[in-house]
């Protein structure tokens, strides 16, 4: 079954939904809108209707399918184990095939698809961003003009130099414990290069040899989730070819969504591509989130110096429910001396970002975020740790707008600081 | 067109944000959680925000002769919320405020759209609980669960929804607002209308406010899991526990099929060589809990069973997992899951379980049975594939036979799911023609135009034709 091939491939999943409605209890969008079409049960019925020809591929139908965070909360509670996100992706794919994508998505996807355009575009954007954004802080900005963006929204600034421009291709260490290749991901590369630098620092401290392949590019997730799976194949192929060329123990990702692309989607996208299917499978097995890798290495406690702070952890959906990385980040955080870890009431609830969802549905995305902000406030934490740059963007926006003092770091930034990294 | 005028009137009175007509939305209100039932597409869905708006909907429905189907979360299991004849689905999701918690009188007053779990969360800080806990406690609304009189795991000791509803506000089919019952423990003013509307499945009025009774949370509990290699031993243990004056809060059974399926799905180390497992929880004052648990252990041993006790909260969770996994595990075996709730007097639980095994053999079906053994409410769960018409014929025949056996054992068609559409045709088996006649007279008296949830429980239209 491959949802990236369209609706026919998920017929069996659609039939398995027994309409119990348990998904209502956990769907962040349903909890805001209270509309049956917004919860998995309703969407599955709509997918069935489209498949059976009871309903047309209207813009109104596409709107309903845009209203999904793919946060996987429904899947985790579904008694029948229905793979809801497969049904959502298959339907988005089908709708895109029948009626095309809106121009804004086409433009975005086309940029992500062409590494050179993306690199140059990001470079130019980093230089010109102050013309259209007002700086609130050295690393926070707000739109000067509407621009199709919410003016109240606070964005992190693009870094003047991307991660890949700042680092070497290879970091050798004497007698390495392991050899890894690092996949940075777009947001880490262009917006939060510090996370990549912290990762490299930590890995070297732990005697891990790292390769940072120069020609890596976008993992393709925005296209997979946006219904453009056909064009992702090329991106998957080039990453599979690139990363399979290194003799490494693991490919490390710094973001659950990128991790899912390598781990879950590339093998599905390339299963029938001659010469790539097996390689993609192999690569998928080797792909690992940084937190899981460090936890298993294991983290060397002798390197950790005390940090006096109170921290909490927000679990990114694709990292936790998607890749099953749940306990590792928490154990890593708790291993830092001096850190008081206060869990959120509901650490796994989606923050509402969901990639381009936060651009196209900002008010709804923000209402979902407010639950998370309340949860954070109640912990008394000074730092919110997380393992996804998109969640981080979302949290930064909310915390800044609500004038909350908490900082947001990637889990590796905490660990790197404890190991003496300063930036 | 009449319909367009009706929708225009609804928009005017409720505001456009509370009137839904997009086909992409309407299709999502054409079903509930019941398997193997026809769907029905509504013409419009309304989401009133208060009682006044509900009254307006009823008046517009009367004017344009459109049926109204009240709907909470749509998690019911009898087809009760399916809009069979088009018309208006009235969803109570926006009337979701807890109006008052009164710790002195031990009551809470809620709007119908409040989720059961939300009420429990809100009363927990007062050391109180609202005991009815259907499997859908995290999704079902108070309005829906009162209208369906839902039960749950704690029925044996704590009763069902009707034992906790003290007062109601109901919008009648003529658009008048009725208030009945209240906060007093004693109330014999007039007929017991609170009980009449509780379990009326939206056919007699639309519930817009509910006063429920709360009870103090039991301070201690003990949770045990017992296994038996003969079904009869498990059944006898159930009856003897209660004969020995122990009323457990939970007394649940899982049959062999269910245990096997649960173990292969959840891998929690259940022994699969048992004929039945019992999950038993006693609660109350610590000394009482201890004494009752000892009685339970003695009786299980006398009936050739083994028993495990949860030493802490983690172990308790593990034991509960076995029971909680029952439905999910069964539901994964085949695409279609038909969940029944035939109920018999407690003394007949063993007979019913044995009859279910026979029925499964006779119709060559996979039936897993679990349920509330302590109150005789079993959930035979038939696993099938709706696309296989031949198999579905056998399923329907088996369901009929399950009802026949339950009634012959002195039981009932439905312990907690309701009649709705799914069991309408079996009603005379249990109630006789006289019983059905009484139901129809009540329905006609309160809803002469058959506007409220028509075609559920009883069928007035059918009678008019014949």
Automatic annotation (TrEMBL), chain A:
Binds 2 [4Fe-4S] clusters. Residues 6-38, 57-88 form the 4Fe-4S ferredoxin-type domain. Signal peptide: none annotated. GO terms for molecular function: 4 iron, 4 sulfur cluster binding; glycolate dehydrogenase activity; metal ion binding. Gene3D superfamilies: Alpha-helical ferredoxin. Keywords: 4Fe-4S, Electron transport, Iron, Iron-sulfur, Metal-binding, Repeat, Transport. Its cofactor is [4Fe-4S] cluster. Its EC number is 1.1.99.14. InterPro entries: 4Fe4S_Fe-S-bd, 4Fe4S_Fe_S_CS, Cys_rich_dom, Glc_ox_4Fe-4S, Helical_ferredxn. Pfam families: CCG, Fer4_8. It comes from the Bacteria. The keyword Isomerase does not apply. The keyword Disulfide bond does not apply. It catalyses: (R)-lactate + A = pyruvate + AH2; glycolate + A = glyoxylate + AH2. Component of a complex that catalyzes the oxidation of glycolate to glyoxylate. This is Glycolate oxidase iron-sulfur subunit. It comes from Ammonifex thiophilus.
TrEMBL record, chain B:
Its cofactor is FAD. Residues 38-217 form the FAD-binding PCMH-type domain. InterPro entries: FAD-bd_oxidored_4_C, FAD-bd_PCMH, FAD-bd_PCMH-like_sf, FAD-bd_PCMH_sub2, FAD-linked_Oxase-like_C, FAD-linked_OxidoTrans_Type4, Oxid_FAD_bind_N, Vanillyl_alc_oxidase_C-sub2. Belongs to the FAD-binding oxidoreductase/transferase type 4 family. Keywords: FAD, Flavoprotein, Oxidoreductase. It comes from Ammonifex thiophilus. It holds the Pfam family FAD_binding_4. This is FAD-binding protein. One of its GO terms (molecular function) is FAD binding.
